[in-house]
C-alpha cells in the first residue's frame, strides 16, 4: 500500500492529538505541521503513463516513479503536473504552458519551454540536487556551488519568486575559474538572479571551501535587481585560507553586491570573511558608458562578525539604508590569521584621484545618499563607521565603542550616536570631522546630539561649514574639541564638554587657520584649561581671519591660554578661571565675567601683544588683581574701557 503525503500528515496529526495532554488546549494542532520540512516517502512503483498523451488543459497527479530514460517529452498545451508522492527523473520535459509542482523537480530532470511553478516558492531538498553536506572534496564543493546556482536560476525560469532553504550545512568552491576569459569573484560566486528571494532559516550554514585566491565571493548579486536575502549563516575561510602567494588577500567576501539594484538583505549572519563580510560596489567606473552603480539597497537585522578586513565596505552606489545591524570584531587578529587594514565595521570609501594633467578630481567611484542607523558596533580593531570618501551620508542613532569619522565628505551627518570607549579603544578620537588640507572637498557637514565618552580626544574638526552642536563630550583624556588645521565658516555651539581626567582641555586650537569660526553657548568643565589656543591664524596670509569664543559657561581648574594668535574675540563668557595671553594680535575681550581662583590676574598679558580691545569685562579677584599688562607690552596697543574689578 502506498502512503500519500496527505495520509502521512493525517497520521502524524492523530499521533500528536493522542499525545496532546502536555500541550495547551488552545494550540491548533495543524499549525504544528510545516509541510516544507517533511521528507516525502516517494513511490518506487513505475508509472505506466505516457506524458505526451495527457490531454491539453488538464492536470495529472504523479503518484509513481516516472523514469524518462534520458528522453525528451513534449507536453500538450497547458498541462499541469502535480505531486502526489511520485517522482520524474532522468530526462527533459518541454512545456507549452502549464505548471509543475516544485516537489517533482530534481537535478536529473530538465524543464524547457514555457512553464511555471505551481507555487511561487520552491523548498530546497539538497539531496535532490546533489548538494552534499559536511566535509567534501574541492570538486564536490564546486558541484555544490554549481547546483545551488542552477536551482536559483531554475526557480526564476519557472516564474517562481522564492527559494526556501530550511536546513543545509555545506561547503562551496568559489575560487576556480569557470566563467569567461578572466576570473571575476562575483561571477564565480553563487549568483542570485533578478526577481528572487533567497530565504534561509538559522539552520542553514553556507561555507567557503578553503582556497588561496586573493579575490573571491561566496554569494553575489551581480547586475541584478529586485533581490532579497533573508536569514541564513555565511562563513569565510580566514583561518583556513592559504596566504602563501603573498599580498594582502583582502578581497575575500561573503556577500558581494555588484551593480545590485533594489535589494533587501535581512537577518543574514556573516562570520570569518577573509576580506569583507559584505562589499557593495559598481560595475565599471562612473565615466564609463556602461557604468552600473548599486542603488536602493537595504541591509537590516544582520550580524557581521570577525571579518579579517572590514565588516561592510561601500565603495560605489547610492540610496542605501544600513539599519539595525550588529557589527563585531572587524579586523581583529585571531590565533591563525592577522587582520588587515583598515579594519572598520563600516567603510564608505569611493575611489578618486586627481588628474596629473588638469589637477581636477577624477571620480572612479561615487558613494552617496547612505543612511547608517540604529546599529551596534563592538570590538573593531579600527574605527566603527568611517566615511572616508562619500557624500550625504547620515550616521544616526548608533551605539558603538570605536570612533566615527567623515573625512572627505560633503553634506554628511554624525547625529544622535552613543560612542563609548573601552580600555582597548580609549586611545583615539571619538568623532573625526574632516582631514587636514581638505577645505575644498569637505564641507556642509554636521556633528550633533552625540554622546562621546572616554576617548583621548572627543571631537576633531577640519574643513568648512561644519555645524557641531548639542553634543555631550565626556571623560576625555586630552581634548574635548580639537581644531588643528584650516577651518572656515563653522559653528560649534550648545555642547557640553566635561572631563575630570587630569590635564583635560575643553577646546584646543593649534596651528589652525580659522576664518569665521565660532565656539559659543557651551558648558565646559575640565580639570585643566577650558580653552587653549596656540598659533591660530599665525601664518602669513591669515592675519585678517577671525574667530569667536562667545557666551560659554566654563568651570575649569586651571587657566585658559591664548598665545601667538590673531583675530580672537573672547566675549560674553562666564569663566571660573583666568586667561593667560601671550603675543596675540587684533583680538578682543568683551563683556566677560571672570572669577579667578588665585591671586593671579583675570586677564594676564605677557610678551608683546598688539591691537587689543578690552571692554566691559567684570573680573572677580581676591586681591583686586584683575588685568595685568606686562612691561614687555606697549600700553598704546591696548584699548581698555568700562572694565570692573571686584573682590
Short description:
Helices cover 6% and strands 43% of the residues.
Description:
The structure is a single chain. It is built from three helices and 64 strands. By secondary structure, the chain is mainly beta. The strands form eight sheets. The protein has a 20-stranded parallel beta sheet that branches. It has a 17-stranded parallel beta sheet. An eleven-stranded parallel beta sheet has the order 33-36-39-43-46-49-52-55-58-61-64, with no helix packed on it. Strand 8, helix 2 (138-157) and strand 9 form a beta-alpha-beta unit. The longest helix has 20 residues, at 138-157. It is elongated and about 115 Å long. The model is unreliable at 1-38 (pLDDT under 50).
How do the strands and helices of this protein lay out in sequence?
Layout: H1 5-18, E1 59-62, E2 65-67, E3 72-77, E4 80-83, E5 87-89, E6 91-100, E7 109-117, E8 121-123, H2 138-157, E9 162-165, E10 168-172, H3 185-188, E11 190-191, E12 197-200, E13 204-208, E14 215-222, E15 225-230, E16 233-235, E17 251-258, E18 261-266, E19 269-271, E20 278-281, E21 295-300, E22 303-305, E23 312-314, E24 317-323, E25 326-328, E26 346-349, E27 352-354, E28 361-363, E29 367-373, E30 376-378, E31 385-389, E32 391-396, E33 399-400, E34 404-408, E35 413-415, E36 418-420, E37 429-433, E38 446-448, E39 451-453, E40 457-461, E41 463-464, E42 467-469, E43 472-474, E44 479-483, E45 487-493, E46 496-499, E47 505-510, E48 514-520, E49 523-526, E50 531-534, E51 547-550, E52 553-556, E53 560-563, E54 568-571, E55 574-575, E56 579-582, E57 585-590, E58 593-595, E59 603-606, E60 610-615, E61 618-620, E62 627-629, E63 638-641, E64 644-646
Parallel strand pairs: 1-4, 2-5, 3-6, 6-7, 8-9, 9-12, 10-13, 11-14, 12-15, 13-16, 14-17, 15-18, 16-19, 17-20, 18-21, 19-22, 20-23, 21-24, 22-25, 23-26, 24-29, 25-30, 26-31, 29-32, 31-34, 32-35, 33-36, 34-37, 35-38, 36-39, 37-40, 38-42, 39-43, 40-44, 41-45, 42-45, 43-46, 44-47, 45-48, 46-49, ...
Antiparallel strand pairs: 27-28
